[in-house]
Protein backbone atom coordinates (compact mmCIF):
# COMPACT_ATOMS: atom_id res chain seq x y z
CA UNK A 1 0.00 0.00 0.00
CA UNK A 2 1.41 3.39 -0.88
CA UNK A 3 1.67 6.27 1.51
CA UNK A 4 -1.05 8.00 -0.36
CA UNK A 5 -3.56 5.23 -0.28
CA UNK A 6 -2.87 5.04 3.46
CA UNK A 7 -3.93 8.63 3.66
CA UNK A 8 -7.42 7.90 2.43
CA UNK A 9 -7.39 11.16 0.54
CA UNK A 10 -10.96 12.11 -0.23
CA UNK A 11 -11.89 12.21 -3.88
CA UNK A 12 -10.80 15.74 -4.60
CA UNK A 13 -13.31 18.45 -4.94
CA UNK A 14 -10.52 20.86 -5.86
CA UNK A 15 -11.83 22.16 -2.62
CA UNK A 16 -12.25 25.74 -3.35
CA UNK A 17 -12.08 25.99 -7.08
CA UNK A 18 -15.72 26.69 -7.44
CA UNK A 19 -16.57 23.56 -9.38
CA UNK A 20 -19.28 25.11 -11.50
CA UNK A 21 -16.94 27.81 -12.70
CA UNK A 22 -14.24 25.22 -13.10
CA UNK A 23 -16.46 23.05 -15.28
CA UNK A 24 -17.32 25.99 -17.50
CA UNK A 25 -13.70 26.91 -17.74
CA UNK A 26 -12.26 23.52 -18.43
CA UNK A 27 -14.67 20.62 -18.72
CA UNK A 28 -11.87 18.18 -19.55
CA UNK A 29 -10.28 18.79 -16.17
CA UNK A 30 -13.33 17.48 -14.40
CA UNK A 31 -12.68 14.07 -15.84
CA UNK A 32 -9.31 13.92 -14.19
CA UNK A 33 -10.31 15.36 -10.85
CA UNK A 34 -12.51 12.41 -10.11
CA UNK A 35 -9.28 10.54 -9.43
CA UNK A 36 -8.22 10.58 -5.82
CA UNK A 37 -4.69 11.51 -6.54
CA UNK A 38 -4.19 13.63 -9.57
CA UNK A 39 -0.49 13.21 -9.93
CA UNK A 40 -0.70 9.50 -10.26
CA UNK A 41 -2.45 9.29 -13.55
CA UNK A 42 -0.40 11.19 -16.02
CA UNK A 43 0.77 9.02 -18.84
CA UNK A 44 3.60 10.18 -20.97
CA UNK A 45 3.78 7.61 -23.74
CA UNK A 46 7.24 6.56 -24.79
CA UNK A 47 8.96 9.20 -22.75
CA UNK A 48 11.39 6.74 -21.26
CA UNK A 49 12.23 5.37 -24.66
CA UNK A 50 12.88 8.81 -26.05
CA UNK A 51 14.98 10.07 -23.16
CA UNK A 52 16.66 6.86 -22.10
CA UNK A 53 15.45 4.96 -19.08
CA UNK A 54 18.29 5.86 -16.77
CA UNK A 55 17.53 9.59 -16.99
CA UNK A 56 14.08 9.21 -15.57
CA UNK A 57 12.74 8.55 -12.11
CA UNK A 58 12.11 4.90 -11.43
CA UNK A 59 8.52 4.33 -12.27
CA UNK A 60 6.13 1.44 -12.00
CA UNK A 61 5.71 1.20 -15.72
CA UNK A 62 8.27 2.20 -18.33
CA UNK A 63 5.90 4.58 -20.03
CA UNK A 64 4.51 6.34 -17.00
CA UNK A 65 5.61 9.22 -14.85
CA UNK A 66 3.97 8.11 -11.67
CA UNK A 67 3.12 9.91 -8.51
CA UNK A 68 5.80 9.87 -5.90
CA UNK A 69 3.55 7.69 -3.81
CA UNK A 70 4.25 4.93 -6.26
CA UNK A 71 7.96 5.55 -6.23
CA UNK A 72 8.47 4.98 -2.56
CA UNK A 73 6.77 1.80 -1.61
CA UNK A 74 8.70 0.93 1.50
CA UNK A 75 7.96 3.98 3.50
CA UNK A 76 7.75 3.22 7.20
CA UNK A 77 5.95 5.57 9.47
CA UNK A 78 6.94 5.83 13.12
CA UNK A 79 3.34 5.68 14.09
CA UNK A 80 2.42 2.88 11.73
CA UNK A 81 1.60 0.66 14.68
CA UNK A 82 -1.12 3.00 15.85
CA UNK A 83 -2.47 3.47 12.35
CA UNK A 84 -2.10 7.24 12.79
CA UNK A 85 -0.15 9.53 10.55
CA UNK A 86 1.74 11.21 13.37
CA UNK A 87 2.99 10.52 16.84
CA UNK A 88 2.00 12.71 19.76
CA UNK A 89 5.36 14.54 19.58
CA UNK A 90 5.00 15.18 15.88
CA UNK A 91 1.43 16.38 16.31
CA UNK A 92 2.44 18.83 19.00
CA UNK A 93 5.39 20.08 16.96
CA UNK A 94 3.17 20.71 13.95
CA UNK A 95 0.53 22.38 16.08
CA UNK A 96 3.06 24.65 17.75
CA UNK A 97 4.57 25.69 14.44
CA UNK A 98 1.19 26.48 12.91
CA UNK A 99 0.07 28.43 15.96
CA UNK A 100 3.35 30.34 15.88
CA UNK A 101 2.79 31.24 12.21
CA UNK A 102 -0.79 32.36 12.80
CA UNK A 103 -0.13 34.34 16.00
CA UNK A 104 2.94 35.97 14.57
CA UNK A 105 1.04 37.17 11.51
CA UNK A 106 -1.88 38.43 13.58
CA UNK A 107 0.56 40.41 15.65
CA UNK A 108 2.17 41.79 12.48
CA UNK A 109 -1.21 43.14 11.40
CA UNK A 110 -1.56 44.95 14.72
CA UNK A 111 1.94 46.36 14.57
CA UNK A 112 1.56 47.43 10.95
CA UNK A 113 -1.59 49.40 11.70
CA UNK A 114 0.17 50.97 14.67
CA UNK A 115 2.83 52.25 12.32
CA UNK A 116 5.66 50.01 13.50
CA UNK A 117 6.38 48.57 10.06
CA UNK A 118 6.93 50.20 6.73
CA UNK A 119 6.34 49.21 3.13
CA UNK A 120 4.20 46.29 2.08
CA UNK A 121 3.53 43.44 4.45
CA UNK A 122 1.99 40.21 3.10
CA UNK A 123 0.58 37.78 5.62
CA UNK A 124 0.35 34.01 5.44
CA UNK A 125 -2.83 33.36 7.47
CA UNK A 126 -4.62 30.27 6.18
CA UNK A 127 -1.61 28.80 4.39
CA UNK A 128 0.20 27.46 7.49
CA UNK A 129 -0.27 23.79 6.60
CA UNK A 130 2.03 24.23 3.62
CA UNK A 131 4.93 25.83 5.45
CA UNK A 132 4.66 23.52 8.45
CA UNK A 133 3.94 20.39 6.43
CA UNK A 134 7.07 20.85 4.34
CA UNK A 135 9.62 22.78 6.34
CA UNK A 136 9.35 20.84 9.59
CA UNK A 137 10.77 17.84 7.69
CA UNK A 138 13.96 19.67 6.75
CA UNK A 139 17.35 19.66 8.39
CA UNK A 140 19.33 22.80 9.20
CA UNK A 141 21.48 22.51 6.08
CA UNK A 142 18.51 22.17 3.72
CA UNK A 143 17.45 25.42 2.10
CA UNK A 144 14.21 27.32 1.74
CA UNK A 145 13.53 30.01 -0.83
CA UNK A 146 10.44 32.09 -0.35
CA UNK A 147 8.49 34.99 -1.80
CA UNK A 148 7.39 38.29 -0.29
CA UNK A 149 5.01 36.19 1.88
CA UNK A 150 7.99 34.92 3.79
CA UNK A 151 7.68 35.44 7.56
CA UNK A 152 6.17 32.07 8.31
CA UNK A 153 8.54 30.09 6.10
CA UNK A 154 11.40 31.68 8.05
CA UNK A 155 9.81 30.86 11.40
CA UNK A 156 9.18 27.24 10.38
CA UNK A 157 12.83 26.97 9.34
CA UNK A 158 13.90 28.06 12.81
CA UNK A 159 14.61 31.77 12.47
CA UNK A 160 13.54 33.22 15.82
CA UNK A 161 10.37 35.25 16.18
CA UNK A 162 12.53 37.98 17.70
CA UNK A 163 14.73 38.34 14.68
CA UNK A 164 11.88 38.18 12.17
CA UNK A 165 9.88 40.77 14.12
CA UNK A 166 12.93 43.01 14.48
CA UNK A 167 13.51 42.76 10.76
CA UNK A 168 9.94 43.89 10.21
CA UNK A 169 10.53 46.82 12.56
CA UNK A 170 13.68 47.70 10.58
CA UNK A 171 15.96 47.19 13.59
CA UNK A 172 19.60 46.12 13.76
CA UNK A 173 18.63 42.94 15.61
CA UNK A 174 16.61 41.75 12.61
CA UNK A 175 17.78 38.75 10.62
CA UNK A 176 19.02 41.14 7.91
CA UNK A 177 20.00 43.83 10.40
CA UNK A 178 16.92 45.79 9.43
CA UNK A 179 17.95 46.19 5.81
CA UNK A 180 15.58 43.68 4.26
CA UNK A 181 12.20 44.25 5.83
CA UNK A 182 9.10 42.14 5.36
CA UNK A 183 9.74 40.86 1.85
CA UNK A 184 13.42 39.98 2.19
CA UNK A 185 13.93 37.59 5.07
CA UNK A 186 17.31 35.91 4.90
CA UNK A 187 19.28 33.76 7.31
CA UNK A 188 22.57 32.17 6.43
CA UNK A 189 22.51 30.17 9.64
CA UNK A 190 19.12 28.65 8.84
CA UNK A 191 19.60 28.48 5.10
CA UNK A 192 16.68 30.72 4.39
CA UNK A 193 17.93 32.04 1.09
CA UNK A 194 15.58 34.93 0.87
CA UNK A 195 12.15 36.28 0.39
CA UNK A 196 11.85 37.86 -3.06
CA UNK A 197 9.61 40.74 -3.99
CA UNK A 198 9.58 40.00 -7.70
CA UNK A 199 7.47 36.99 -8.38
CA UNK A 200 9.39 34.03 -9.77
CA UNK A 201 12.70 35.55 -8.81
CA UNK A 202 13.36 33.03 -6.07
CA UNK A 203 12.88 30.01 -8.32
CA UNK A 204 16.24 30.31 -10.12
CA UNK A 205 17.95 31.02 -6.81
CA UNK A 206 16.48 27.81 -5.40
CA UNK A 207 17.47 25.93 -8.54
CA UNK A 208 21.00 27.27 -8.15
CA UNK A 209 21.11 26.15 -4.52
CA UNK A 210 19.97 22.68 -5.53
CA UNK A 211 22.58 22.63 -8.27
CA UNK A 212 25.29 23.52 -5.77
CA UNK A 213 24.24 20.62 -3.51
CA UNK A 214 24.47 18.23 -6.41
CA UNK A 215 27.81 19.67 -7.50
CA UNK A 216 29.22 19.32 -3.99
CA UNK A 217 28.11 15.72 -3.85
CA UNK A 218 28.93 14.53 -7.33
CA UNK A 219 31.87 16.68 -8.40
CA UNK A 220 33.57 17.71 -5.18
CA UNK A 221 32.71 14.34 -3.59
CA UNK A 222 31.58 16.01 -0.41
CA UNK A 223 28.98 14.43 1.80
CA UNK A 224 25.96 16.46 0.89
CA UNK A 225 22.38 15.35 0.53
CA UNK A 226 20.83 18.76 1.07
CA UNK A 227 17.46 19.54 -0.41
CA UNK A 228 16.03 22.91 -1.43
CA UNK A 229 12.39 23.89 -1.28
CA UNK A 230 11.17 26.67 -3.55
CA UNK A 231 7.85 28.19 -2.45
CA UNK A 232 5.83 30.38 -4.78
CA UNK A 233 2.24 31.14 -5.74
CA UNK A 234 -0.20 30.21 -8.47
CA UNK A 235 0.21 33.63 -10.08
CA UNK A 236 3.90 32.88 -10.53
CA UNK A 237 3.35 29.72 -12.55
CA UNK A 238 2.71 31.57 -15.77
CA UNK A 239 6.07 33.25 -15.43
CA UNK A 240 8.97 32.13 -17.64
CA UNK A 241 11.41 31.52 -14.80
CA UNK A 242 9.15 28.77 -13.52
CA UNK A 243 9.32 26.87 -16.81
CA UNK A 244 13.05 27.41 -17.31
CA UNK A 245 13.80 26.09 -13.86
CA UNK A 246 11.51 23.08 -14.12
CA UNK A 247 13.39 22.15 -17.26
CA UNK A 248 16.84 22.56 -15.73
CA UNK A 249 15.90 20.79 -12.52
CA UNK A 250 14.47 17.80 -14.38
CA UNK A 251 17.33 17.69 -16.88
CA UNK A 252 19.97 17.66 -14.15
CA UNK A 253 17.90 15.73 -11.60
CA UNK A 254 18.38 18.42 -9.00
CA UNK A 255 17.45 17.90 -5.34
CA UNK A 256 14.63 20.41 -5.27
CA UNK A 257 10.91 20.48 -4.58
CA UNK A 258 8.85 23.18 -6.28
CA UNK A 259 6.04 23.96 -3.87
CA UNK A 260 3.20 25.92 -5.41
CA UNK A 261 0.98 27.61 -2.87
CA UNK A 262 -2.12 27.84 -5.00
CA UNK A 263 -4.33 30.18 -2.98
CA UNK A 264 -6.46 30.75 -6.09
CA UNK A 265 -5.63 34.43 -6.33
CA UNK A 266 -2.78 36.60 -7.56
CA UNK A 267 -3.61 39.90 -5.85
CA UNK A 268 -7.07 40.44 -7.44
CA UNK A 269 -6.65 38.11 -10.40
CA UNK A 270 -8.39 34.77 -10.11
CA UNK A 271 -6.23 31.81 -11.02
CA UNK A 272 -9.07 30.38 -13.12
CA UNK A 273 -9.29 33.53 -15.16
CA UNK A 274 -5.58 33.87 -15.76
CA UNK A 275 -4.45 30.34 -16.52
CA UNK A 276 -5.17 28.23 -19.58
CA UNK A 277 -5.02 25.00 -17.61
CA UNK A 278 -5.56 25.69 -13.92
CA UNK A 279 -4.14 22.37 -12.75
CA UNK A 280 -0.58 23.45 -12.13
CA UNK A 281 0.67 20.04 -10.99
CA UNK A 282 0.30 18.81 -14.59
CA UNK A 283 3.29 20.87 -15.61
CA UNK A 284 5.56 18.50 -13.66
CA UNK A 285 5.01 15.47 -15.88
CA UNK A 286 5.35 17.74 -18.90
CA UNK A 287 8.96 18.25 -17.86
CA UNK A 288 9.56 14.65 -16.80
CA UNK A 289 9.05 15.00 -13.06
CA UNK A 290 6.17 13.89 -10.86
CA UNK A 291 3.41 16.43 -10.38
CA UNK A 292 1.28 16.18 -7.28
CA UNK A 293 -1.89 17.92 -6.21
CA UNK A 294 -2.57 17.99 -2.50
CA UNK A 295 -5.09 19.58 -0.17
CA UNK A 296 -3.03 22.42 1.24
CA UNK A 297 -5.47 23.00 4.09
CA UNK A 298 -4.57 19.65 5.64
CA UNK A 299 -1.13 19.60 7.19
CA UNK A 300 -1.07 15.81 7.44
CA UNK A 301 -1.70 15.33 3.76
CA UNK A 302 0.84 18.00 2.90
CA UNK A 303 3.34 16.33 5.18
CA UNK A 304 2.90 12.91 3.59
CA UNK A 305 3.42 14.36 0.14
CA UNK A 306 6.36 16.41 1.40
CA UNK A 307 8.04 13.37 2.97
CA UNK A 308 8.09 11.60 -0.31
CA UNK A 309 9.08 14.56 -2.45
CA UNK A 310 11.88 15.55 -0.05
CA UNK A 311 12.99 11.94 0.28
CA UNK A 312 13.11 11.57 -3.47
CA UNK A 313 15.24 14.69 -3.80
CA UNK A 314 17.55 13.53 -1.01
CA UNK A 315 18.07 10.15 -2.60
CA UNK A 316 19.22 11.87 -5.78
CA UNK A 317 16.11 10.95 -7.74
CA UNK A 318 15.35 14.48 -8.84
CA UNK A 319 12.75 17.19 -8.50
CA UNK A 320 9.02 17.13 -7.81
CA UNK A 321 6.34 19.70 -8.44
CA UNK A 322 3.75 19.86 -5.68
CA UNK A 323 0.64 21.99 -6.01
CA UNK A 324 -0.90 22.71 -2.62
CA UNK A 325 -4.41 24.03 -2.88
CA UNK A 326 -4.72 26.57 -0.12
CA UNK A 327 -6.25 29.93 0.71
CA UNK A 328 -5.16 33.18 2.28
CA UNK A 329 -7.45 34.41 5.02
CA UNK A 330 -6.47 38.04 4.62
CA UNK A 331 -6.06 40.46 1.74
CA UNK A 332 -3.08 40.23 -0.58
CA UNK A 333 -1.14 42.59 1.65
CA UNK A 334 -2.09 44.68 4.65
CA UNK A 335 -2.77 47.53 2.25
CA UNK A 336 -5.45 45.47 0.45
CA UNK A 337 -9.03 45.97 1.70
CA UNK A 338 -9.85 42.52 0.27
CA UNK A 339 -13.12 43.53 -1.31
CA UNK A 340 -12.82 41.48 -4.50
CA UNK A 341 -13.15 37.94 -3.27
CA UNK A 342 -16.58 36.43 -2.85
CA UNK A 343 -17.59 36.24 0.84
CA UNK A 344 -18.96 32.74 0.22
CA UNK A 345 -15.56 31.61 -1.02
CA UNK A 346 -13.88 33.10 2.02
CA UNK A 347 -16.38 31.44 4.33
CA UNK A 348 -15.85 28.10 2.60
CA UNK A 349 -12.16 28.18 3.33
CA UNK A 350 -12.51 29.70 6.79
CA UNK A 351 -14.46 26.58 7.68
CA UNK A 352 -11.48 24.51 6.54
CA UNK A 353 -9.00 26.32 8.76
CA UNK A 354 -5.91 24.07 8.78
CA UNK A 355 -5.16 24.73 12.44
CA UNK A 356 -8.64 23.76 13.54
CA UNK A 357 -8.41 20.62 11.40
CA UNK A 358 -5.14 19.56 13.05
CA UNK A 359 -6.51 20.33 16.49
CA UNK A 360 -9.51 18.10 15.77
CA UNK A 361 -7.27 15.28 14.57
CA UNK A 362 -5.06 15.52 17.64
CA UNK A 363 -7.96 15.52 20.08
CA UNK A 364 -10.06 12.88 18.34
CA UNK A 365 -7.09 10.54 18.22
CA UNK A 366 -6.14 11.18 21.84
CA UNK A 367 -2.70 12.49 20.94
CA UNK A 368 -3.24 15.39 23.34
CA UNK A 369 -6.13 17.07 25.09
CA UNK A 370 -7.52 20.57 24.86
CA UNK A 371 -5.63 21.87 27.88
CA UNK A 372 -2.29 20.58 26.57
CA UNK A 373 -2.92 22.50 23.35
CA UNK A 374 -3.81 25.58 25.38
CA UNK A 375 -0.41 25.39 27.04
CA UNK A 376 1.19 25.57 23.59
CA UNK A 377 -1.00 28.51 22.59
CA UNK A 378 -0.02 30.36 25.75
CA UNK A 379 3.66 29.66 25.20
CA UNK A 380 3.43 31.02 21.66
CA UNK A 381 1.55 34.12 22.82
CA UNK A 382 4.42 34.84 25.16
CA UNK A 383 7.03 34.27 22.45
CA UNK A 384 5.26 36.65 20.08
CA UNK A 385 4.69 39.31 22.76
CA UNK A 386 8.31 39.09 23.74
CA UNK A 387 9.38 39.38 20.08
CA UNK A 388 7.49 42.66 19.82
CA UNK A 389 9.03 44.04 23.02
CA UNK A 390 12.46 42.99 21.85
CA UNK A 391 11.99 44.53 18.41
CA UNK A 392 10.58 47.71 19.85
CA UNK A 393 13.50 48.19 22.22
CA UNK A 394 16.16 47.30 19.66
CA UNK A 395 18.19 50.10 18.07
CA UNK A 396 17.70 51.39 14.57
CA UNK A 397 20.63 50.79 12.22
CA UNK A 398 23.21 53.58 11.99
CA UNK A 399 22.94 55.76 8.92
CA UNK A 400 26.26 54.41 7.67
CA UNK A 401 24.59 51.03 7.15
CA UNK A 402 22.60 52.54 4.30
CA UNK A 403 25.34 52.01 1.79
CA UNK A 404 26.45 48.57 2.87
CA UNK A 405 25.98 45.97 0.18
CA UNK A 406 25.28 48.60 -2.43
CA UNK A 407 27.16 47.56 -5.50
CA UNK A 408 26.96 50.86 -7.35
CA UNK A 409 29.78 53.24 -6.52
CA UNK A 410 29.03 54.80 -3.16
CA UNK A 411 31.87 57.29 -3.33
CA UNK A 412 30.05 59.94 -5.23
CA UNK A 413 26.91 60.24 -3.21
CA UNK A 414 25.43 59.14 0.07
CA UNK A 415 26.38 59.83 3.66
CA UNK A 416 29.79 61.38 4.16
CA UNK A 417 32.20 60.77 7.05
CA UNK A 418 30.75 63.85 8.72
CA UNK A 419 27.30 62.17 8.73
CA UNK A 420 25.91 64.62 6.14
CA UNK A 421 24.43 63.77 2.79
CA UNK A 422 26.75 64.49 -0.10
CA UNK A 423 26.49 64.19 -3.85
CA UNK A 424 29.50 64.24 -6.12
CA UNK A 425 30.14 63.09 -9.62
CA UNK A 426 30.03 59.29 -9.30
CA UNK A 427 33.03 57.28 -10.41
CA UNK A 428 33.96 53.69 -9.85
CA UNK A 429 35.99 52.64 -6.85
CA UNK A 430 37.62 49.33 -6.18
CA UNK A 431 36.67 46.98 -3.41
CA UNK A 432 34.04 47.18 -0.73
CA UNK A 433 31.74 50.07 -0.21
CA UNK A 434 32.85 52.25 2.65
CA UNK A 435 31.59 55.56 3.78
C1 LIG B 1 7.93 40.10 -11.84
C2 LIG B 1 6.77 40.68 -11.09
N1 LIG B 1 5.66 41.07 -11.75
C3 LIG B 1 4.62 41.59 -11.09
C4 LIG B 1 4.66 41.72 -9.73
C5 LIG B 1 3.47 42.30 -8.99
N2 LIG B 1 2.88 41.27 -8.15
C6 LIG B 1 3.07 41.29 -6.82
S1 LIG B 1 2.30 40.01 -6.07
C7 LIG B 1 1.67 39.45 -7.52
C8 LIG B 1 0.76 38.25 -7.55
C9 LIG B 1 1.42 36.98 -7.22
O1 LIG B 1 0.47 36.00 -6.95
P1 LIG B 1 0.86 34.56 -6.50
O2 LIG B 1 2.08 34.11 -7.20
O3 LIG B 1 -0.34 33.72 -6.65
O4 LIG B 1 1.25 34.71 -4.96
P2 LIG B 1 0.34 35.08 -3.72
O5 LIG B 1 0.44 36.53 -3.49
O6 LIG B 1 -1.03 34.64 -4.02
O7 LIG B 1 0.97 34.33 -2.58
C10 LIG B 1 2.07 40.25 -8.58
C11 LIG B 1 1.68 40.04 -9.97
C12 LIG B 1 5.83 41.31 -9.07
N3 LIG B 1 5.95 41.39 -7.76
N4 LIG B 1 6.86 40.79 -9.75
MG1 LIG C 1 -1.79 33.18 -5.32
From TrEMBL:
It comes from the Eukaryota. Its cofactor is thiamine diphosphate. GO terms for biological process: pyruvate decarboxylation to acetyl-CoA. The keyword Iron does not apply. Signal peptide: none annotated. Its EC number is 1.2.4.1. GO terms for molecular function: pyruvate dehydrogenase (acetyl-transferring) activity. InterPro entries: DH_E1, PDH_E1_Alpha_Subunit, Pyrv_DH_E1_asu_subgrp-y, THDP-binding. Residues 97-397 form the Dehydrogenase E1 component domain. Keywords: Oxidoreductase, Pyruvate, Thiamine pyrophosphate. It catalyses: N(6)-[(R)-lipoyl]-L-lysyl-[protein] + pyruvate + H(+) = N(6)-[(R)-S(8)-acetyldihydrolipoyl]-L-lysyl-[protein] + CO2. The pyruvate dehydrogenase complex catalyzes the overall conversion of pyruvate to acetyl-CoA and CO(2). It contains multiple copies of three enzymatic components: pyruvate dehydrogenase (E1), dihydrolipoamide acetyltransferase (E2) and lipoamide dehydrogenase (E3). Tetramer of 2 alpha and 2 beta subunits. This is Pyruvate dehydrogenase E1 component subunit alpha. It comes from Amborella trichopoda. The lineage of its organism: Eukaryota, Viridiplantae, Streptophyta, Embryophyta, Tracheophyta.
